[in-house]
């Protein structure tokens, strides 16, 4: 790539981060399937250990295949550096441990992926990190919740599973004045639709298992930031020492997934909009949560801060919650499964599956009812996805 040229997303996702030619002129980079690296002599050891040289020591610290993935993710999120992890949860928990210490406060949005909610409410609290769960779609509530110990604000936008849209610019402008770090989980939107660092966020985290991989065959995570001191600390004090390292083969598969991220996201979104409109018209459906629908509460903010609305949506079935069970039990093409972002359309009931760790009263308070169904709209033909849903809805 020409350093003086500005490339667009689909080009960056295929080429960014390459350093010259691959060995033997291979089109694709090799997988550096090695745990350790060899030094020329003790001076070489000293240079690498003191970061004078960018060579490698041991894959738990770094590896060329991981570095290429990290550089490509940093380019896509418009960050300065990235750290790859063995899973999204490894990225999220390491980032939170890196930014917080005993006595600090973290403020999180009311809805989060279930394991993230558990890390904040059950694990960090054991280390005397306090937390407040608030509705960050109402930015005015943030001012009230802040105190002198607040060090981190953490949220997903769109959030899992109810697609809360949080105004990143507004939250970060409040946080910046007080030196508070803002961490955004960008898993649902991907950098194709949203770049939180450009809107003021300090750190972006991803479950790379989802759209970045795109094929449901890898577990991975990544954190991206502009502050290289933070990246260095996260990498060597947390990723490397906690040991949640991504495998070189999985990094290579994620690089392969990234090549088609833009193409996939465009098609995912087109399908999702058609499915959302179909559900909105259906008499058995009480409510559809999809940021691309004009009457969705977060639609206007989504329109401003995203360049598309993604392909995750949730909907509530009218009446008895058993009807929601019937829908997910009766789909045929659509698969009953957790996770998201795959080619296959996946369906689940968050209250019974991904969010079962939330206390029952909190599920009700945050609107995650037993009648709520989450859909990760895949890449099958939209007509076939709709027909499958139509048949399942007809059976209730
Ligand atoms: C929004 C979000 N963040 C993080 C995670 C955790 O990612 P992983 O399963 O890769 O650890 C998930 C998993 O579903 C998720 O949906």
Could you characterize the architecture of this molecule?
By secondary structure, the protein is an alpha/beta fold. The chain has two domains: 9-258, Type I PLP-dependent aspartate aminotransferase-like (Major domain) (Aspartate Aminotransferase, domain 2, 3-Layer(aba) Sandwich); 262-394, Aspartate Aminotransferase, domain 1. It has helices spanning 9-15, 42-49, 64-77, 88-99, 114-123, 140-145, 168-177, 190-193, 228-243, 248-258, 261-281, 299-305, 322-330, 360-365, 382-394, and strands spanning 81-85, 105-109, 130-134, 150-156, 181-185, 203-207, 221-225, 285-289, 312-317, 335-336, 346-348, 372-376. The strands form two sheets. It has a seven-stranded mixed beta sheet, sandwiched between helices. Strands 8-9-12-11-10 form a five-stranded mixed beta sheet, covered by helices on one side. Helix 8 (190-193) links the parallel strand 5 (181-185) and strand 6 (203-207). The chain is globular and about 70 Å long.
In short:
The protein is of the alpha/beta class and 396 residues long. The protein has helices at 9-15, 42-49, 64-77, 88-99, 114-123, 140-145, 168-177, 190-193, 228-243, 248-258, 261-281, 299-305, 322-330, 360-365, 382-394; strands at 81-85, 105-109, 130-134, 150-156, 181-185, 203-207, 221-225, 285-289, 312-317, 335-336, 346-348, 372-376.
């Amino acid at each position: 790539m020409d350093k003086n040229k500005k490339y667009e997303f689909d080009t960056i996702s295929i080429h960014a981060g390459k350093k010259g030619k691959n060995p033997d002129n291979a089109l694709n980079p090799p997988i550096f399937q090695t745990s350790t690296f060899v030094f020329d002599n003790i001076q070489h050891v000293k240079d690498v250990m003191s970061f004078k040289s960018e060579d490698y020591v041991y894959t738990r610290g770094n590896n060329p295949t991981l570095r290429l993935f990290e550089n490509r993710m940093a380019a896509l999120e418009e960050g300065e550096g990235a750290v790859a992890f063995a899973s999204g949860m490894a990225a999220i928990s390491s980032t939170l441990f890196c930014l917080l210490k005993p006595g600090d406060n973290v403020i999180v949005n009311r809805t989060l992926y279930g394991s993230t909610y558990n890390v904040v409410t059950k694990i960090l609290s054991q280390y005397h990190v306090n937390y407040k769960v608030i509705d960050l779609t109402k930015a005015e509530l943030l001012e009230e919740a802040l105190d002198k110990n607040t060090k981190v604000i953490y949220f997903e936008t769109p959030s899992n599973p109810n697609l809360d849209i949080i105004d990143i610019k507004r939250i970060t402008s409040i946080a910046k004045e007080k030196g508070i770090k803002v961490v955004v989980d960008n898993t649902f939107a991907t950098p194709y639709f949203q770049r939180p660092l450009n809107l003021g966020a300090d750190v972006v985290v991803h479950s790379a298992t989802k759209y970045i991989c795109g094929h449901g065959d890898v577990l991975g995570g990544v954190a991206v930031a502009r502050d290289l001191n933070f990246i260095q600390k996260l990498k060597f004090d947390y990723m490397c020492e906690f040991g949640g390292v991504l495998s070189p083969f999985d990094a290579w598969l994620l690089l392969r997934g990234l090549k088609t991220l833009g193409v996939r996201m465009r098609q995912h979104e087109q399908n999702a909009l058609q499915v959302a409109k179909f559900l909105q018209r259906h008499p058995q459906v009480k409510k559809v949560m999809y940021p691309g629908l004009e009457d969705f509460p977060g639609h206007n903010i989504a329109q401003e801060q995203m360049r598309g609305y993604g392909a995750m949506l949730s909907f509530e079935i009218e009446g008895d919650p058993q009807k929601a069970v019937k829908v997910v039990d009766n789909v045929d093409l659509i698969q009953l499964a957790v996770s998201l972002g795959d080619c296959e359309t996946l369906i689940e009931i968050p209250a019974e599956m991904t969010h079962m760790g939330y206390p029952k009263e909190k599920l009700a308070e945050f609107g995650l009812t037993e009648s709520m169904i989450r859909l990760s709209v895949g890449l099958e033909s939209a007509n076939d996805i709709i027909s499958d849903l139509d048949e399942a809805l007809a059976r209730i």
